[in-house]
Amino acid sequence: MASEPAPSARYAALFRNGRNQAVRIPKEFEMTGDQVRISKDGARLVLEPVMAPPRLLNVLAELGPLEGEFPDVDANLPPLDAPEV
Known about the structure:
- This protein is mainly beta.
- It has a domain at 14-62.
- It contains one helix and four strands.
- The model has no long low-confidence stretch (mean pLDDT 85).
- The strands form two sheets. A two-stranded antiparallel sheet has the order 1-2. A two-stranded antiparallel sheet has the order 3-4.
- It is 9% helix and 24% strand.
């Protein structure tokens, strides 16, 4: 996705959605995802998109094959069926 310059400012109307106050975000301020983190900075409200953490299978798929030999970590262990002494 190409980075476009952010618009400087635009006015939007506030409205009620049930018991919540809401604002319709204009298209040029659109964010990806389906959640935002909201915080106050003085009189300003700050909205930050919440990015979902990467899924393990996606991370593993991006790693590709591993190079090198793996050590034999159980070489000095007794067999699993040996009785404990």
